[in-house]
Amino acid sequence: MVTRRIAEILRNGQPDEPATIQGWVRTKRELKEFTFVEVNDGSSMANLQVVLNPDLPAYEEYLKKLNTGASVEVIGSLVASPAKGQRIELTASEIKVYGEADPETYPLQKKRHSFEFLRTIGHLRARTNTLGAVFRVRNACATAIHEFFQERGFLWVHTPIITGSDCEGAGEMFSVTGLNLKQIPRTDQQEVDYSQDFFGKPAYLTVSGQLEAEVMAMAFSDVYTFGPTFRAENSNTSRHLAEFWMVEPEMAFCDLEGNMDLAEAFLKHIFKSVLENCPEDMEFFNQRIDNSVLATADNIINNQFERITYTDAIALLEKADRQFEYPATWGVDLQSEHERYLAEELFKKPTIVTDYPVGIKAFYMRLNDDEKTVRAMDVLAPKIGEIIGGSQREERLDILERRIQAQGMNPEELWWYLDLRRYGTVPHAGFGLGFERLVQFMTGMGNIRDVIPFPRAPLSIEF
Ligand code: 4AD
Ligand code: MG
Question: Could you tell me if the CB of 66 is within 6 A of ligand 1?
Answer without folding.
Answer: no
